[in-house]
Amino acid sequence: MGATGEAVSPRVAEIFEKVEQLTSTERLTLAKLLLESVLTAESEEETDWTAMSLSTFQRDWNNAEDAIYDNCVPTR
Question: Which pTM does this prediction carry?
Answer without folding.
Answer: 0.46
